[in-house]
Amino acid sequence: MRKILVISDTHGYLDNYEKVIKQNKEADYIIHLGDVCGDEKYIQWSVPYAVKILRGNNDWNRELAEKVVFEMYGHRIFATHGHRYGVYGSDVTRLVYAALQEDCDIIMYGHTHVPVIDEGEDYTIINPGSLTYPRQSGRKPSYILMTMEDDGNVTYELKYVD
């Protein structure tokens, strides 16, 4: 079993990131979906486990990938910031099309600062919202704790920073 923290849009502010790390000591993987704004090295070295960091529209580090496709516990995951796929508002059509072209069944994106967990029959779309500038009703900083079981079962929990 793996516990994966899915975060996004920290925009150079790490106070809430630090709280999330302390609240989730059982996590063993982080996926940051972009707009890390220069803190990528700190995030990579702040935990003793694997980290994937993607480039967002406010990131200038060309070493960060704009998208990654990878496999984990029998699932193909498509992860990106989302701005290149026109995810403004709730339209994720281009993003879903790109992910399905890659045979992915888990689609992750950030950029909108609004959390989403949309579990469908063939694929699941998630957006952790923002740890710094939340835009959803109530405007609470958010992230997703994704648990992947050895048997391939996946659960998603939208969590808020205390």
Provide an overview of this structure.
- There is one protein chain.
- With 162 residues, this protein is α/β, with parallel strands linked by helices.
- The protein has one domain: Metallo-dependent phosphatases (Purple Acid Phosphatase, chain A, domain 2, 4-Layer Sandwich).
- It is 15% helix and 31% strand.
- The protein is built from three helices and ten strands; from the N terminus they run E-H-E-H-E-E-E-H-E-E-E-E-E.
- It has a five-stranded mixed beta sheet with strand order 3-2-1-9-10. A five-stranded mixed beta sheet has the order 4-5-6-8-7, covered by helices on one side.
- Strand 4 and strand 5 form a beta hairpin.
- The longest helix has 9 residues.
- The radius of gyration is 14 Å and the shape is globular.
| Average residue pLDDT | 96
Contiguous helical run count: 3
Q: Strand order across the biggest sheet?
A: 3-2-1-9-10
Number of domains: 1
Helix content range: 10-25%
The outline comes out as globular
List the helices and strands and how they pair.
Elements: E1 2-7, H1 15-23, E2 29-32, H2 40-45, E3 50-53, E4 67-72, E5 75-80, H3 93-101, E6 106-108, E7 116-119, E8 124-127, E9 142-148, E10 154-160
Keyword list:
162 residues; five-stranded mixed beta sheet; globular; Purple Acid Phosphatase, chain A, domain 2; 3 helices; 31% strand
Short description:
By secondary structure, the protein is an alpha/beta fold. It contains 3 helices and 10 strands, in the order βαβαβββαβββββ.
